[in-house]
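Thread: "does anyone have the structure for this chain?"

Original post by V.I.:
We have the sequence but no experimental structure in hand. Need at least a predicted one for the grant figures.
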Amino acid sequence: KNRIFSKSQTNRAKLAWTMSWREKMHKVKQNMSLSNFVKRVRNIMRNDAGINGDAQRIEQMAWMLFLKVYDEKENDWELDDDDYKSIIPEECRWRNWAHDDGSGNALTGDELLSFVNNTLFVELKNIEVTPTTPIRQAIVKTTFEDANQYMKDGVQLRQVLNVIDGLNLGDYEESHAFGEIYETILKEMQSAGSSGEFYTPRALTEFMAEIVNPQIGEKMADFACGTGGFITSWLGELDKKVKTAEDRKEYNQSVFGIEKKQFPYMLCVTNLLLHGIDTPLVYHDNSLTKDVLNYTDGDKFDVVLMNPPYGGNEKSDVKSHFPSDMRSSETADLFMVLIMYRLKRNGRAAVIVPDGFLFGADNTKIAIKTKLLRDFNLHTIIRLPGSIFAPYTSIATNILFFDNTRADGAPEGYSTKETWFYRLDMPEGYKHFSKTKSMKSEHCDPIREWWNDRKEIIIADGDEKSRCYSVEDLIATDCNFDLCKFPKEDEEILPPAELLADYFKKRKALDHEIDKTLAEIQRILGIEVNVDEL
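Reply from O.Q.:
Generated one for you, tokens below.
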């Protein structure tokens, strides 16, 4: 009996191992197939004369992915609701024009191009939306308001549609795996712009979401949500606490976002649909165009997580929506004011700001920082390495953690008692972060270790890595928060002869560029100037 039982055990173990092996191989093949997805689409689009560069390629891919994901969602909604009616005209639903059933009747070539340009885009841009239209349907019109169709070759457009249609987003495993692929698409499309837009590393958004510690029933906001990185990181943390159907309902209603630009907005909506949010409370709007003094308690949120755009300037009519002493031209400053007016009592925030906010000494920045100390508990500032957002920008950044509470023992007239500063140095073996060596979750481990056991850290010769400052200290410096700074790198001092040679070399190159520019100006103006006579 023992021998037979042993064989039975062995057979079951072999069977279990075989099934496990098959499942693993299936996932490996699945991931390889999905990883190959972006490459296949890219290769097809590169041959299309209408696609000019990666930005247009990804924008083209984005609206098609949205329609594919939305069609999969509609399958679910139709199963749940017998009376469900799509807001998309029947001929424009993905299943009726993009899907190729292999019968040879699928639209292609000039016929497909004509349909997409003259029917699909026209119909979707002109969908009628009323105040009673459910959000999950209204997002179709909003998503297509400024979308573009660039491809000029109908055969190649059909090839791209077939690749996208081949994604089995109805399968949980494949849908989840594609969510990861989608993240790489989002990262790939990001580049520094005039308004300071760039991809916030996932390691950073997840760390900030982890620290604010989401709770079931709370509502989180990002007023410049881009493609939804902070929102999905919040959802990732909150999902760990979902236990009941009621919890899941709260989870689905826990996020709010606003995005000014249409393209990131489209990507964000698709991102949330992929994360199981059937009714994304994300709006295509400018958060700064409403008077902050008019916000009521119903307009406020338990948590704000965001990386506001900075480096841009706002017009005078936008600044008029803010108190006169806080009307900054810098977008990051205005978003800080907005956050303070839309954070609930006892709410908490984690916000990325540029170095300029910390050491800025103009009257507007001082007024904003003074309000932060008076009305909020600014308990922690994390200094981040300058290359975290490489290669998109070299601007040094910081994370402000603050609560809409009054700290115990705070002096009269202030809500902050003290502020801890901590400098996150580059990890060992890294000179700087880059596109290929980006920030990883483990690089935040030093902050995690320090966070719950705070100690002042002085390395040598006054080099402060971590220190606690009282609110009186900060006020005394006119709210200069540029503390626990990164030590300046020592400059290489060349021998005098090499220094002079280097100087003359650089001056000669500069003179050459100046002469070329002046010559071009002369040519345009049609004048001649004898330099020797000047």
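V.I.: this helps a lot. The radius of gyration is 28 Å.
O.Q.: and Confidence is low (pLDDT under 50) at residues 1-9, 14-19, 21-32, 191-196.
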